[in-house]
Amino acid sequence: MDTLFSLAHGFTVATQPVNLLVAFIGCFVGTVIGALPGIGPVNGIAILIPLAFSLDLSPVSALILLTSVYYGSMFGGRIASILLNIPGDSSAVVTCIDGFPMAKKGLAADALAISAISSFAGGTLATIGLTVLAPTLAMAAIHFGPREYFALYVMAIVIVGGIATGNPAKTLVAGLLGLAIGTVGIDPATGIPRFTFGAYELYEGIDFVIVAIGLFAISEFLVYIEQRRSGPVEQVPVGRRSTALRRLTYPATSLRAGLLGFVIGVLPGAGATLASFMGYALEKRVSDKDGTFGKGDPRGVAAPEAADNAAAGGSLVPMLTLGVPGSGTTAIMLGMLVTLNVQPGPLLFQQQPEIVWGLVAALYVSNVILLVLNIPLVGLFAKLLTVPPHYLMPGVVTVSFLGVYSVNQNSFDLLMMVGFGVFGYLLRKLGIPLVPVVLGIILGTPMEQSLRRAMAASGGDVWTLLESPLALALHAVTACMILVAIVREARRRHGEAAAARGA
Amino acid sequence: MNIIAGRRALGAGMLGLAGLAAARPATAFVGPRPECLAPSAPGGGWDFTCRTVGRLMQELQVVDQPVQVSNMPGAVGAVAFANVTSRRAADHNLFVATSTVGLTQIAQRRYPGDIDRVRWLAMLGADTGVILVRADSRFKTLADFLGALKSDPGGIVTGGSSSLGGYDHLRLLLLAQKAGIPAADLKRFRWIHYDGGGPAVTQMLGGHVEVVSTDLAEIAGFVEAGQIRVLGAMAEARLAGAFADIPTAREQGYDVVGLNWRGFYTGGRVSDEHYNAMIAGLKRVYDSEGWKEAARRSGLQPVWRSGPEFERFVAGMVSELRGLSQEIGIIS
Asked: What are the TM regions of this chain, as residue ranges (chain A) (predicted)?
């Protein structure tokens, strides 16, 4: 009852006109920022922080502004994924897998509506989780040490292998390429630069955004040029959005992926990207009976969107209760909180309840605003595809250059982006899937770091990895998944062989 | 970025008018376009330093135009350093935010050039290094911890928010040196790097690391909540306010001051006249109520060192960190 009472009080804070206005602006700006390739939630929030200061907003209003931008960009990130096959931010990479094929089938409007609705479902689920479970969950999360994180990332990489369709050997090559790219830069454990060839531009590592935009957008452009040489390129049809709600809502999918996403979001450091991949992989395992995933299955859009929005909510749990950022975005928000004289940490719930509960209530409000804002815009966004490719593609390339330049204001990044574009084109020609490359980059670094931490703590004893019951359990689950996959494959081959003999 | 640029232009217009009305100081702080260079992305620590000081300069009319904050992230400040020393060495419009983190990089020769390539202006505040354990830890004082470390250098898991050889690690080693632990044993310490003080302390609460060395500001909430114990603060004297009962390392017999200070440098060929004017301008910021408030909010202690005194301080710190880094084999 206490919680409900606090939440009711929170709603009186969140529904003050100024806070409603701020939430609306934040949602709108966030959606736009998320939709632009290259400018993700991290940049969006960094851009808006000076605004929050200069408007002299109260801490609650400033926090509401930033979180609604955060949620908004999570909504917006999938727009470019679905329409153009260019992920707007890292957590929208998976949405490309089924979102873009849907758009190619003329179902762009449906895909956008589905992603908005499941984003809403995931976000709301996470907010409920945040309301009810925050302090309990935060205390549970501290039991995740380096060994447990390592086990989690190993599991994630194994699961990811299941996402990719097609040749397993090529998937493996792609994943290893990603892992290799991820090692470039200053090694966080020792501070020593690796594979930088003396170029200072490489010291911070290769920004994920540069790789993603190069691999997806620029290579898409190169493929387009190639196709044009051999004849006119077919225009993607723009269908009308289905009005049947049944075809746009996937409650079971959203619930499964949302719960998973929330739990992953709560673990500091794992974040929305991991959640979106795991959500997709889980859904594929559960529902892909007919092999429709990767070819434009709507559930393949609903699952990652529900998971990444739920993770965004989940990552607020460690931020508010422990003062520990769950992601890059929350790290920046945390810095701003401190300058607003709000000390996040174990005492925040007791000392400044009006901020916490005002924020939680504002999350419910922003989610509704985002849904209401996004559904009517679906038609408008989908119209983008009616632009003929010979106008659209140069526009996409321009936006890509702007987006990448805006990250560091560095022309070296543009060269790298073009380089990755050519590389991506070659990979496409070789039939090597691009998604595992991106995954290797995203998962490789944290996996390596947790392994290094575990080794540093044990003094180099490898067996330490198996000495924690939680880590052992995670590894056991991973081992089971591999076994099941092998048995399935063996049965399939056996079946095929039998069929061949029979025929 | 466009949003900022647009807003800046607007602000520049408005403040330009205000500037005309204000009397122009005899020696201008900087030239026509004051610029604070933050060698980090927007939202980072150096960015915060630039934005806060820039805002105060404007409010205090130290400058007659708004200070433009530009970001040049890369290689922990080395990209900005290279740019300033090679292209903008005589640019008296420019001051660059830095801190102990940047200086550690210079000490370990990770910048293109040594401290004499630039002119060190001043430091305005500092965060304090602390050694932390869980509230239920076996260690009650620094002597307990350092004694245990001395008898079994590889037996205690320590960590903090920097890499091996970073400042959090080095200042723990400085303490250990004062406790008489030989250099060969310093290398045997187990050190886990984290992305910040908060994550390190959370991991400590979960029992994954026993002792954490980091800055106070980020983890102050945990101290107030009573979940962790501060074995010692590496400050020159006891801290003010809520942290007055934290013992310093110095009073426990280990004379180590580990301040993570925030300050500025400018190009190496800036004239004495401009250099002094910049310091005078920064001093006005330091003396203002606004800076005290901003420093308090972000957990910094206001500390002032400038000009030759600051240059000596920087040189002393570099030689100490360089010597230690060589002893433990971080650099040759």
From this structure: 20-39, 45-71, 111-144, 150-166, 173-193, 205-225, 257-282, 322-343, 355-378, 390-407, 414-442, 462-487
Q: What is the DSSP string of A62-106?
A: HHHHHHHHHHHHHHHHHHHHHHHS--SSGGGHHHHHHHHHHHHTT
Q: Is residue A14 part of a domain?
A: yes
Distance in Å, alpha carbon of A342 to nearest chain B alpha carbon: 9
Around Cβ A96, how many Cβ atoms within 10 Å?
26
Q: Write the residue in B43, B208, B225 that is nearest to A46 by C-beta.
A: B43
Domain ranges of chain B: 2-126+260-326, 127-258
Kindly indicate the confidence band of residue A245, based on its pLDDT and cuts at 50, 70 and 90.
low
Domain pair B2-126+260-326 / B127-258, same fold: yes
Whether the pLDDT of residue B9 is over 50: the answer is no
Do residue A345 and residue B225 have CB atoms under 8 angstroms apart? yes
> Which among A71, A96, A75 has a CA at the least distance from the CA of A434?
A96
The rounded distance, in Å, linking the Cα atoms of A11 and A415 is 49
Asked whether residue A83 is assigned to any structural domain, the reply reads yes
Distances (CA, A) of A292 to A251, A285, A300: 19, 12, 9
- Is the pTM higher than 0.95? The answer reads no
Question: Over the stretch A336-394, which tens digit does the pLDDT of each residue have?
Answer: 776 666 766 667 777 777 788 888 888 888 889 988 888 888 888 888 777 887 888 88
Q: Are B163 and B193 in contact (CB under 8 A)?
A: yes
Tell me phi and psi for residue A467, to 5 degrees.
Answer: -90, -5
CB atoms within 10 A of CB A1: 5
Could A338 and B42 be called an inter-chain contact, meaning their C-beta atoms sit closer than 8 Å? no
Residue A343 and residue B208: Cβ atoms within 8 Å?
Answer: no
Q: Tell me which CATH code domain B127-258 carries.
A: 3.40.190.10
Between B242 and A28, the more confident residue is: A28
In chain B, residues with a C-beta closer than 8 Å to the C-beta of A46 are 41-43
What values do phi and psi take at B290, rounded to 5? -55, -45
**Min distance A425 CA to chain B CA atoms (Å):** 29
Residue A417 contacts B, CB cutoff 8 Å: no
With respect to residue A480, please indicate whether it lies within any of the assigned structural domains.
no
Please list every residue in chain A whose beta carbon sits closer than 8 Å to the beta carbon of residue B45.
335
Architecture of domain B2-126+260-326: 3-Layer(aba) Sandwich (3.40)
For residues B284 and A338, the model is more confident at B284
Residue A421 has a pLDDT of 94
pLDDT digits (tens, 9 = 90+) for A197-219: 888 788 878 887 788 888 888 88
Structural domain span for residue A418: 2-467
Instruction: Specify the number of domains making up chain A.
Output: 1
Which residues of A, range 261-300, sit inside 8 Å of B by Cβ? Answer: 268-269
Whether A474 is in a domain gets the answer: no
CB contact under 8 A, B190 and A187: no
Nearest to B225 among A269, A336, A347 (CB): A347
Nearest residue, CB atoms, A344 vs list B82, B166, B221? B221
pLDDT in tens, A29-80: 888 888 776 666 777 777 677 677 677 778 888 888 888 888 888 788 788 8
Nearest-Cα residue of chain A relative to residue B3: A47
CB contact under 8 A, B202 and A331: no
Verify whether the Cβ–Cβ distance B82 to A268 is below 8 Å: no
**A191 contacts B163? CB cut-off 8 A:** yes
Please indicate if any CB of chain B lies within 8 Å of the CB of A335: yes
Sign of the CA dihedral with B102 first, then B108, B113, and B119 last:
positive
- Please answer yes or no on whether B79 and A54 come within 8 Å at the CB atom: no
Interatomic CA distance for residues A299 and A305, integer angstroms: 10
Distance from CA of A379 to the nearest CA of B (A): 27
Res B190: pLDDT = 93
Q: Give first-to-last CA distance, chain A, whole Å.
A: 68
